[in-house]
Design goal:
The structure holds three protein chains of three kinds. Chain A is of the alpha/beta class. In chain A, 40% of the residues lie in helices and 16% in strands. The chains are: A alpha/beta, B mainly alpha, C mainly alpha. Chains in contact: A-B, A-C, B-C. Chain C: This is Carbohydrate ABC transporter permease.
């Protein structure tokens, strides 16, 4: 029951059955013909994707010598706890595991994950979108095969905007104006919700602004900067909307939240592209009411977006079958058949260069969104993602104390900037405990 | 809820015997106790010992594991986040436990009096919530407390007033208490009820001859008979309150900003260990909490007649 | 003598009962809803389309019917764990009640002291030790800890004190009966109501055990219902992760099915339950 950031990163991408016009894709290094050895081998794969067996079956068909045992041992932090326990105990972990990008540094930097450039994954940086590769690459080492990602977009209720006669915002200024107009026209409607425990929202916001709230140098020197100009810009913006009563406090993914979304109380949802999956899955009755638009920007003419969510397949350092494990991870996430299955059977947004060059994929009209060619917007957002965002090795802790600090400000309608300061203090205290040399930027 | 009555009878049954007889009795007694001692040792004592050992170490992301002596304990004593949680569960104990036990006693008296129609159904009904697993409880309470779509919203909306925010900072502890009460009233009620059933019929007959009314009987016969059971329930409520975890973590999913990571000491230990990887510090907190529990359980009992005490 | 029912008392307690039953009623009502109606109808109103059997059918088929596998696991863990715990507690309680032995106070005090330390902090140590012992991801890792019930031990001790007269034990000894025989043929029979009580308490406790199985099991095929349903609930919260199946109705209907056996157990075993508790509550 304990909420924290990781499982939310989980919310996954879309894709309604795409008409799959098979396009010739060039995927390097991961087809069955490359199988290094024919020795039968069994690998264990931990993931919480409920329907993954379909994809695994296809892999096994193409790789008769590799058997994959799929285990769903928990969502997000529950799985990570098990992996951490197995790492500490020296055995008992899986060969391949599903891991959200924010959780990877904690395991990678403590030596728990295999460097895939040494186990047959040299091709990763060429196969996958550069913006996504940067989330699994630390120095020259690559610690995961990207599976999906969450390029930022804005879902909105077209019916609400039309009824209120409000323009769909493209900048955050327009967004604030729309917030007022919408609420004035319909007191039950709010531009969006704020969730005091949902750390992904500020991550996404700070990322878009190019903020660097935490920077680690030499492995031990941590600089915290949650009072930077960018951080304060985000904080003050939301403080204003929140205090003006233009946002609704709600818990994303809760039963009540889905009701509010379905009921037209929440007009926009700025989130990773996978949000569509949640809408179609839980609110099928809303078909045709929602649309997607680019993530609003801070200044007219800006293009920079950010991301929310997404996962990779990682290989554990304690695995004795790292080659087979890497081969599996590459096939599922990077091969033509694997990607097709991720997209069609799992409803994920794949991350290969090839798929994002495939017109059949990009131009598909999404019925739920009133026939919009939504993936064009996703693709644009993926391309425009601001580079330079990074995660710390103790991201779960940072996420867990967000609600203790910033969450208080949101709930009590006080200054979120002050909340950021309290958050920064808690992080600093923790990092010092963990042996980092902490500097607070001024 | 576990353990109780134990210590009670230890002294009573300890009679002087010849050493050789006691030696023989010891051999047999330990043979009977052996299975319990083995499983208890393997699953509780050894992990506890392990926790005690690691509470003197510190594991850092940078620098690895080092021996730090009693540093973790010193830190806990000065940790205001921990203090907040401890004060909160103490407040909880002082307020919620009397209410819960009062309802349980009244329910037991009512059922025992025979003046309640359908008492068998009431008895089972009050007891059922104890069997409801946490994942279900979270869904149900989320609905019941929900201000907009929930029952609270609908009921208050019917009267045209906005529902109070049951999950807001002001009422949250009360809502937690509500769930705990809901879960454990029936449990305690059954213990009390059983105590009442065991009062010999002759006692009532004697009271009737003295012309005692129902109220008088309840006051001077039934309540005194409940004392040992009440003491037992009280001690286990001390343990339950100080280890408060399930109910707040259920509500945390619904209102994360109110149930902070240090809302109760046990939640804090959990969060330190599972979110922050500070297993060592969490172990120290658990040990301290265990110590505090024992002390409070002892103090609470001082208000009880010596013969009714457990420790 | 017939006691007149009190209308005031009856009304008061039936109101209390109604409040206590409310969450269960909610569960019952919502298990009849389809995913769509869960989000469009009022919480305590029955849906337009009665989807209960649909939901059960989906439970039976989703992920090859893993729900019923979890159900079976739960029954295994609860029955073996509770049965074993009750037996172990009966033996130990008998020893504590009927023998004057060296170290008795120490044993009792240690058990109580260890119970006062919250189990959350023992999770990581338990994992490490179970790994060393090769127990991780085995049924034994769930069952073994369920076997130790301090409450059960003390309840049995108290019960044995009263229920088993010393004179019967002495008489059996004079007849030359061995101690094991005395316990199983004489004492245990007298302790059956207490034994059933501990059995039921442990049954509920093991049935609802979540934290430990979550930590020690690594294969969903071995999960009990609590862990499995919580997993689905988290996925449902994550928002339509499954492209095949909306999970909310499965969680709710599955939860109802998970509670039912315990309700049935309560109703059928309440007679034993009461007489067993009496010993624990009453005597000092």
């Amino acid at each position: 029951m304990i909420r924290h950031t990781a499982p939310r990163g989980v919310r996954r991408a879309v894709t309604v059955a795409a008409a799959l016009a098979a396009t010739a894709l060039v995927i390097t290094g991961c087809t069955s013909s490359d199988t290094p050895s024919d020795e039968p081998v069994e690998i264990t794969f931990w993931t919480w994707l409920p329907d993954i067996q379909t994809t695994v079956d296809k892999f096994e068909e193409a790789h008769p010598n590799i058997t994959v045992k799929v285990e769903n041992v928990g969502v997000g932090i529950d799985e990570y706890t098990k992996i951490q326990n197995a790492v500490d105990a020296g055995s008992g972990g899986p060969d391949v595991a599903h891991m959200t990008y924010d959780a990877i540094p904690a395991f990678a930097l403590t030596g728990a994950l295999a460097d895939l450039t040494q186990t047959g994954g040299e091709s990763i940086s060429d196969t996958f979108l550069p913006g996504v590769v940067s989330l699994v690459q630390f120095g020259d080492a690559i610690y995961g095969v990207p599976q999906d990602f969450g390029p930022g977009v804005m879902y909105y209720r077209e019916d609400l905007f039309t009824a209120a006669g409000v323009e769909v915002p493209t900048t955050w200024d327009e967004y604030a104006t729309a917030a007022e107009q919408l609420h004035a026209a319909n007191p039950n409607a709010y531009i969006t919700y704020l969730e005091p425990g949902l750390v992904d929202a500020p991550y996404m916001g700070l990322w878009q602004l190019g903020a660097k709230p935490w920077t680690i140098e030499n492995g031990t020197d941590l600089t915290l900067d949650l009072q930077s100009e960018e951080a304060l810009q985000w904080a003050d913006y939301w403080t204003e909307l929140n205090n003006a009563g233009l946002t609704l406090e709600s818990v994303q993914g809760s039963d009540e939240w889905f009701k509010q979304m379905g009921d037209g109380q929440i007009a926009t949802w700025v989130v990773g592209a996978w949000g569509l999956q949640a809408l179609t899955g839980v609110l099928p009755q809303n078909e045709g009411l929602w649309r997607v638009a680019p993530q609003p920007v801070w200044n007219e003419g800006d293009t920079g977006t950010s991301q929310w969510g997404g996962s990779a397949s990682v290989v554990l350092a304690q695995s004795e079958k790292q080659e087979a494990a890497t081969e599996f991870a590459l096939w599922v996430n990077g091969s033509e058949e694997g990607v097709a299955s991720l997209r069609d059977d799992q409803g994920l947004l794949p991350t290969t260069n090839a798929v994002w060059e495939d017109p059949a994929f990009i131009d598909e009209e999404i019925a739920y969104l009133g026939g919009q060619q939504a993936r064009q917007i996703f693709a644009q957002s993926a391309q425009d993602t601001v580079v330079g965002w990074s995660w710390t090795p103790f991201q779960p802790y940072i996420g867990s104390v967000y609600k203790d600090t910033v969450g208080q400000a949101i709930s009590n309608k006080t200054s979120i900037a002050e909340g950021f300061k309290a958050w920064q203090d808690r992080i600093a205290e923790y990092a010092e405990e963990q042996g980092f040399t902490v500097t607070i930027a001024d | 809820m576990t353990a109780p009555t134990a210590l009670v009878d230890v002294a009573a049954s300890t009679r002087r015997r010849r050493p050789s007889a006691k030696l023989r009795a010891s051999r047999i007694a330990y043979a009977f106790l052996l299975p319990f001692i083995v499983v208890f040792t393997l699953t509780i004592v050894v992990p506890l010992g392990y926790a005690l050992v690691i509470s003197f170490f510190k594991k850092q992301l940078i620098g690895g594991t080092v021996f730090v002596g009693i540093d973790n304990y010193v830190r806990a004593l000065g940790d205001t986040l921990l203090h907040d949680g401890v004060l909160r569960v103490l407040l909880f104990f002082v307020v919620q436990v009397p209410i819960m036990l009062l309802i349980a006693v009244l329910a037991a008296l009512a059922i025992d009096s025979g003046r309640l129609a359908g008492s068998r159904i009431v008895r089972i009904g009050l007891f059922l919530p104890y069997a409801v697993p946490a994942v279900v409880a979270a869904l149900m309470w989320g609905y019941i407390f929900g201000g907009r779509f929930g029952l609270a919203g609908q009921v208050f909306g019917f009267f045209g007033v906005p529902a109070p925010d049951f999950l807001g900072p002001g009422l949250m502890l009360g809502s937690v208490g509500n769930i705990v009460t809901w879960s454990f009233v029936g449990y305690n009620m059954l213990i009390f009820y059983a105590a009442l059933r065991s009062i010999p019929e002759e006692v009532y007959e004697a009271a009737a001859i003295d012309g005692a009314g129902e109220f008088r009987k309840a006051w001077s016969i039934k309540l005194p008979a409940l004392r040992p059971a009440l003491t037992l329930a009280l001690i286990f409520s001390v343990i339950g309150s100080l280890q408060l975890f399930n109910e707040p973590s259920i509500l945390q999913a619904l209102r994360p900003s109110v149930i902070t990571t240090n809302y109760t000491p046990n939640l804090y230990a959990y969060s330190l260990s599972f979110m922050g990887g500070q297993t060592n510090y969490a172990a120290a907190i658990a040990v301290l909490l265990g110590g505090l529990t024992v002390v409070i359980a002892y103090v609470v009992q001082l208000g009880v007649a010596r013969r009714d005490r457990f420790v | 003598m017939r006691i007149r029912k009190s209308p005031v008392l009856t009304i008061l307690f039936w109101m209390l009962l109604a409040y206590f039953m409310l969450p269960l009623v909610w569960l019952l009502v919502n298990s009849t809803k389809s995913n769509e109606e869960l989000f469009t109808t009022f919480g305590l109103a029955f849906p337009n389309t009665f989807a209960f059997f649909d939901n059960v059918a989906q439970l039976a088929t989703y992920q090859d019917g893993i729900f019923f596998r979890w159900f079976g696991n739960t029954i295994l863990y609860a029955v073996v764990g509770a049965g074993g715990a009750a037996l172990i507690a009966a033996m130990g309680g008998y020893a504590l009640a009927k023998f004057d032995f060296f170290g008795k106070r120490g044993v009792v005090a240690s058990i109580l002291g260890a119970t006062a330390v919250p189990g959350t902090a023992l999770a990581v140590p338990t994992y490490m030790l179970f790994t060393q012992w090769g127990l991780i991801n085995t049924e034994a890792a769930v069952i073994l800890p369920a076997l130790a019930s301090p409450f059960g031990l003390f309840l049995m001790m108290v019960y044995a004190q009263d229920a088993v007269p010393e004179s019967m034990i002495e008489a059996a000894r004079i007849d030359g009966a061995r101690e094991w025989r005395i316990f199983f043929t004489i004492a245990f029979r007298l302790m059956v109501p207490g034994f059933v009580t501990v059995l039921l308490f442990q049954l509920v406790a093991t049935w609802n055990n979540y934290f430990l199985p979550l930590i020690v099991l690594n294969e969903s095929d071995k999960f009990p219902l609590t862990v499995g349903l919580s997993l689905w609930n988290k996925l449902a919260n994550a928002g339509g992760v499954s492209v095949v199946q909306p999970l909310y109705p499965l969680v709710i209907t599955g939860s109802l099915l998970a509670v039912l056996p315990l309700i049935v157990a309560f109703i059928f075993l309440q007679r034993y339950w009461q007489s067993g508790i009496a010993a624990g509550g009453v005597k000092q």
